[in-house]
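INTERNAL AUDIT FORM
Audit reference: QA-55
Scope: verify that the stored structure record matches its stored sequence.
Auditor: D.O.
Record contents follow.
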Amino acid sequence: IRQELPWKTGTNHALPSSSVTFSISMLFTNITTIILMLQYGDGAANIADIAGFTVISSILMYLVSQLVGAIMGVFNTGIALYFLNISCGRKAKINHLFYGFQHIFKRSLTVSTVSTLINTLCLLPYNVFMILYQTNSSTTWLICTAVSLVLGGLIYLPISLSLSQCHFLLLDFPKYSGSEVIRLSMRIMKGKKLKLFLLQLSFLPLHILGLLSFGIGSLWVTPYTNMTMALYFLDIMNPTSNTENLQ
């Protein structure tokens, strides 16, 4: 049974989440780096100090980026809302960017935090080996870094696909808690992960072109992919509709 959808009234979120996340993350990481440089930059630092600085700064920057990522991930609910409004012919407004913070912050933060923690755990070996490689440029650490990245990605990919509908479901089921939405997304995506993966993979050439254009092409590619994800959600929640063949 479908719930009363809050996005049917024309509420919304929007596009700049990635740039905002990047800016805030860079701000905190640069402050961290400056503090550590003041601590170790007395002109008498030996190799051990430099190695310690690299390890500490890398760990702190990584933790800060994950924390910021979890908080800024709340914007994903607004992005979902924005494109659901458009796909349903409703009015979408940029000033509804903070919908997730204003109305369903706790639920959105729960979903975002779980996703961030899973990403952190899956890529933790990679980040550890990367720090070790930065402090000691050994071929062994480089190989371990590459292997752990591949294995971590293989573990994270199916999990991320299972959780891919969470922010849409937060809007679709307003009475569900964050944990209930996560379980519902995992149940809905059973047997559908491969289709979604292939759909997302089809955007790879467009994203490459966006990068080759110094990011300018992403101004068109990103909304296009977000709209497709909104249509994909509507399709799996209403399989009898005519949106079965998403290209």
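Auditor finding: record pair retrieved intact. The radius of gyration is 21 Å.
Action required: none
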